[in-house]
C-alpha cells in the first residue's frame, strides 16, 4: 500500500516535470493565412499580464482566418470572413520568415508577354455569364474593370518584388505594457469578390461578369520569447554571477527558478523585506546569464542566445573578478561585446561589481592591493564614463558573493536603479500618450 502510494507520487512528479517542461516553449514557427476573398484578417495582441510565466506553447502552429462566403443572386453580398485575434505574451518577438507571393508575381515567373499575362489574370480573376466571355473581352465596361484590377495587381507586384519597392518584412516586438491592448495586423484578408451589380453604370445596366475574391496573404513567422528581468548580470565565465544571484536571492529573499533544457537561464526575485513593510526597495527580478566571452557578438559559444535577454534588462550589472589580474581588460571585453551586439548597449550597465574582494584581504599587504585595484578600477570606469561608453551614473561596488559581504549595498543600489528606470519608463509612456 505504502509502496503503491510512493510509486503514484513518483509518477506524479515525473508527469508534472514533463508537463512543466512542455508548457515552457520559447520559440515557435507558425503558419498564418488570412481568409480568402472575404476579408478575414489575423491580428496579434498582447496577453494580459499576471497570467503566470510567459510561454508560447498555447500558440497554434497553424492560424487561419475564416474565409468569406460567396455572394448570391438578387444583389446579395457574400458573408465577410471573421477576423482571428491571437494573444501572444509580453516579450515576444515576431519575425517574418516567408511571405506568399501574390498571384501576379507567379504569373510573371511564367511569362513576360503582356498578352499571356492578360490571359492569366482574366482566367484567374473574372467569371462570365455563360457564353459571354468573348463578348466581354471587347466590352468597354469589362475592359475598364480589368484595367483597374491590373493596376491593383501591379501594386501588389511592386510591394512583393525584392528588386522594386518590396514591403519591409514584418517584425514586431511585443514588450511594451503601454500598448497592451494594441492589435497588430499580421495578414490582411483577401478583398472580397465583386458581383456584377457593382459594375452597373447608366449606360450599361447589366454587366455580364463578376470578379472573384482577391488573394489572401499567407506568411510563416517565428515567435521568440525573450526573458524579461529588471536586472541582467553580465560577466566573463567564473566571475561569480550565479553566486551573486544566490547571495541576493537566498536567505532573505524568494527565488523563482525556471529551468530550460537549452538555455538554462535563472531568474530570481530580490525581495529584501519578504514583501513586508521592512522592505526598503520594491521587489525586482534578476537574471543570471552564461559567461560572456570575447567574440560572443560573433555568435561564439552561447553568444546571441542570452544577449537577447540582456538587451531587455532595465539595469545591467558588470560582474568582474577583482582578484584576477585581467579585471580591467575583462571590463573592456564585456563593453566591447555588448556594443558589438547592439550599439550603445554597454551604456545600460550602471553598476560594476568588483567581486571576490575577499580574496584580496587577510593581510595588510593584500588590503593595500585591494584598495589599489579598486582605485584603478574606479579610474578606469570614470574614463569610460567620460568617453561616453558607460552611463554617467555607473558606480563600482566591491563585493564578496561567496561570503555575502556588501550584498545589502548592491541590493539597495539595484533596487534604486530599477525603481528610477521604471519611473522614467512610465513618464516616457505618459508623454507618448499625451
Ligand atoms: N572567494 C570567492 N569566490 C567566489 C566569489 N564569488 C564566486 N566565487 C567562486 O567563483 C566560482 C565561480 O562562481 P560562479 O558564481 O559559478 O560564476 P559564474 O560567473 O556564474 O560562472 P559561469 O556561470 O561559468 O559564467 C565558484 O567556485 C564560486 O564559489 C567570491 O566572492 N569570493
Ligand atoms: Mg553561472
UniProtKB/TrEMBL annotation:
A cellular component annotation (GO) from this entry: mitochondrion
Keywords assigned by UniProt, alphabetized: GTP-binding, Nucleotide-binding
GO biological process, one term: ribosome biogenesis
Organism: Wallemia hederae
Taxonomy, superkingdom: Eukaryota
GO molecular function: GTP binding; GTPase activity; magnesium ion binding
Record-annotated OBG-type G domain positions: 229-419
Family stated for the protein in its record: Belongs to the TRAFAC class OBG-HflX-like GTPase superfamily. OBG GTPase family.
Protein's name in the database: OBG-type G domain-containing protein
All residue ranges annotated as the Obg domain in the record: 1-228
A Pfam family hit: MMR_HSR1
Lineage, top ranks: Eukaryota, Fungi, Dikarya, Basidiomycota, Wallemiomycotina
Amino acid at each position: 500500500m505504502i509502496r503503491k502510494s510512493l510509486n503514484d507520487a513518483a509518477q506524479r512528479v515525473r508527469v508534472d516535470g514533463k508537463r512543466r517542461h512542455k508548457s515552457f516553449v520559447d520559440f515557435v514557427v507558425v503558419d498564418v493565412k488570412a481568409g480568402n476573398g472575404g476579408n478575414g484578417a489575423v491580428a496579434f495582441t498582447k496577453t494580459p499580464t499576471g497570467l503566470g510565466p510567459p510561454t508560447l506553447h498555447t500558440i497554434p502552429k497553424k492560424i487561419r482566418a475564416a474565409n468569406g462566403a460567396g455572394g448570391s443572386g438578387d444583389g446579395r453580398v457574400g458573408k465577410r470572413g471573421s477576423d482571428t485575434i491571437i494573444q501572444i505574451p509580453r516579450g515576444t518577438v515576431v519575425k517574418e520568415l516567408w511571405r506568399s507571393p501574390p498571384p501576379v508575381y507567379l504569373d510573371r515567373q511564367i511569362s513576360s508577354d503582356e498578352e499571356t499575362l492578360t490571359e492569366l489574370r482574366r482566367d484567374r480573376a473574372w467569371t462570365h455569364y455563360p457564353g459571354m466571355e468573348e463578348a466581354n473581352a471587347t466590352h468597354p465596361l469589362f475592359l475598364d474593370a480589368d484595367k483597374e484590377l491590373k493596376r491593383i495587381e501591379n501594386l501588389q507586384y511592386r510591394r512583393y518584388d525584392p528588386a522594386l519597392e518590396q514591403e519591409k518584412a514584418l517584425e514586431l516586438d511585443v514588450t511594451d505594457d503601454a500598448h497592451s491592448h494594441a492589435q497588430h495586423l499580421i495578414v490582411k484578408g483577401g478583398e472580397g469578390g465583386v458581383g456584377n451589380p457593382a459594375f452597373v453604370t447608366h449606360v450599361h445596366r447589366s454587366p455580364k461578369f463578376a470578379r472573384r475574391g482577391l488573394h489572401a496573404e499567407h506568411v510563416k513567422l517565428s515567435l521568440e520569447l525573450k526573458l524579461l528581468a529588471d536586472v541582467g548580470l553580465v560577466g566573463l565565465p567564473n566571475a561569480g554571477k550565479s553566486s551573486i544571484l544566490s547571495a541576493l536571492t537566498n536567505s532573505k529573499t524568494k527565488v523563482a527558478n525556471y529551468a530550460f533544457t537549452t538555455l538554462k537561464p535563472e531568474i530570481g526575485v530580490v525581495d529584501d523585506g519578504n514583501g513586508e513593510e521592512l522592505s526598503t526597495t520594491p521587489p525586482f527580478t534578476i537574471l543570471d546569464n552564461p559567461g560572456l566571452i570575447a567574440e560572443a557578438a560573433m555568435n561564439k559559444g552561447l553568444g546571441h542566445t542570452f544577449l537577447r535577454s540582456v538587451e531587455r534588462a532595465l539595469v545591467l550589472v558588470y560582474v568582474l573578478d577583482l582578484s584576477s589580474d585581467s579585471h580591467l581588460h575583462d571590463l573592456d571585453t564585456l563593453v566591447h561585446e555588448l556594443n558589438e551586439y547592439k550599439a550603445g548597449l554597454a551604456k545600460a550597465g550602471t553598476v560594476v561589481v568588483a567581486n571576490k574582494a575577499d580574496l584580496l584581504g587577510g593581510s595588510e599587504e593584500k588590503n593595500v592591493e585591494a584598495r589599489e585595484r579598486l582605485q584603478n578600477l574606479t579610474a578606469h570606469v570614470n574614463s569610460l564614463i567620460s568617453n561616453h561608453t558607460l552611463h554617467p551614473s555607473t558606480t563600482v561596488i566591491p563585493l564578496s558573493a561567496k561570503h555575502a559581504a556588501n550584498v545589502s549595498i548592491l541590493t539597495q543600489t539595484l533596487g534604486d536603479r530599477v525603481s528610477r528606470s521604471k519611473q522614467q519608463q512610465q513618464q516616457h509612456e505618459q508623454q507618448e500618450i499625451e
